[in-house]
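Question: what's this shape?

___
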Amino acid sequence: MFFSLIKRNSKRNIKENGLLFVSLIVSIIAFYIILSLENQDVIRFLKTIESDAVRKLLLVTPVLYGVSLFILFFLVYFAGKYQVERRSHEFGMYLMLGMRQSKLFFMLLGEEIWNSVLTLIIGIPIAIFISEMISMITAKVVGLGIVGHKLSFSINAVFWTIAGYFIIRLLALLILSWKIAKKEIMKLLEESQNEKNKTCSTIFTLIKLVTGIILLGAAYKLAITGYAWTAMNNMAIAVVLGILGTFLLFNGIGILFETMLKKMKNKNGLEVFTFRQLQENVFLKSNSLAVSSLLVLMALCFFAYGISVSINSKSSGQHVLHYTFEGEEGHIKSELSKLQIKDYMNEIFNVKAGILSDKYENSFSYKELIQSIEKQQQSNNKDILLNNLQTFKYPYLINESGYNKILKLAGKSTLQLKNNEVVIFNGLEFSNGAEVLKNALKEKVNIQIDGKKYEISQKLCYDDIVTDSAINLSYALIVPDDTFNKVIDKKNVNSYWNAALKNDFIKKNGLMQSIMQVNALINKTDLNYESYLQNMGRELFYSVAGSYTTIYLGFIFLIIANTVIGVQFLMQQQKTGRRYNTLIRLGCKYKDLCKSARKQIKWYFSFPVVVAAIGSVFGVKALFSGIATSAMKLKINTLMMISIPVILVLCVVEFCYIIGVMKLSDKQIYKLMEIKREDN
């Protein structure tokens, strides 16, 4: 009998709270995916190349797990609180009929265990399937088929998913049970518990609204300009201003309802009731709405940033050079000829780079370049550029003929430098001020070496001179070969022997498979080389670290934010049930009540979501300003064009969630109508 009651209650709770049930299943899926990350094909591949970096990334997994447990506890708690509030009268009746509080607790415990087992039985298989699909799709996209696919199933991930899920559900149950035990039976039997409306002067409310907008504007400015990222104190100031501004904004936004209500004095129907309900919900729940808005803001920012980083990492790889060898030319060519490497690889070529000879160091001057940059409009990138150019006092030089072969491979026009002309090479990792530099070079700018003037071309070059992007120059001068041989310090010249795989070979086998086949051959020799595999591995690691984790966190924040705001509204609707009962007894129709409730839901959700959506545009740009690589910072406009559609798509997801809450609201109103029929 007792167990039948548990099963019947559990089945009813799932049926009446399908949206919350689905949210819990989604949280289980998110748990498993992050815990099984190390079994993903991409991660297994990266372990062979970037083992130390991957090891450090995986060390962060327990931290993400702990943070997720903490955040998802509130999802479970608010979902449980809503059910307890909804069933308050039911619990009171159980106690009135003689059920002991201990038995009531064990009944709730049984329901929790039963519901948890059901969600785990549904969630774990779905999580395993999705994790497997992510592993295969990611491997396919980046071309890792050669490494072979292995099942991403992890028994440890299953164990910790189950353990963590049960812990947060039981902890939430203990807290809620303690709250039930403190209430008297008559309090539980009350069908609704209205809260007192708080009053506040219109002027003070308007002041809070304006102050909130000003503080939010200041916080976004600090973040976008990059000032917040210069020190922890500055970041703390920006965060505090943003949070405080959000709370003041939502506390002050109630003035809009007061204005609307004044305009509705002569209106009939449920419009006044609808806006009165909203006015009380905003005043009473402004802090909850502010918290929900902040959670949605973080979710949108993380999603947009993560997806943009992922797309950028995929598209930014340079496939021009596939190999760079270091050593004597004769030895390199001799070893490669033994392997019949010409069947796979184009002819190797030499790119030389070195520093000025000692006798020319003191005669080098780039004063005109600095003066031209200083004339440009003041900006953060200008300051970074001037700071980076401090190392340009002893510039690296690159020979023109070697660099032209790289440009030719890339399908770009080659340089045609005059004897008195040079080109600035600007490494992508140090190209924050590229636009400032380009504007500065629009004027005629010269450098001097040993009293001779060399005009700097308006063109900037970015193509790496070696395969591995870890070996990168910040700034250098590409000079004619004669000039290079004349002014270079011959004791400090680095010769990089580069090569690219043949296009036919790549088309036949794919880039990854081609490189790995050639690597297997070269590894039989004693040649010192770097392949594009190392470069790609590093890019993949940045993609995984930057996108997987941020998208995961965005996922978690979105779940909890929607649950919090949805449950808060349904709880408030439950507490004001007497008003709906009164309207029903006065003859109000079911469709009209549903229409009123749906209008409340739209307004109630719109405020936090719209504020978060607007803020996320600035928030994502702030993330790009602060934690993006230099290469990404060059593409901020492109990345923002990717981010904005992502934000819009998530807003559509929010709209779908709103529809789900509307359906739950309709069910609540339908129940009230059923009660009224039974009374009659």
Observations:
- Confidence is low (pLDDT under 50) at residues 192-196.
- Residues 185 and 473 are 75 Å apart (CA to CA).
- The longest strand covers residues 488-499.
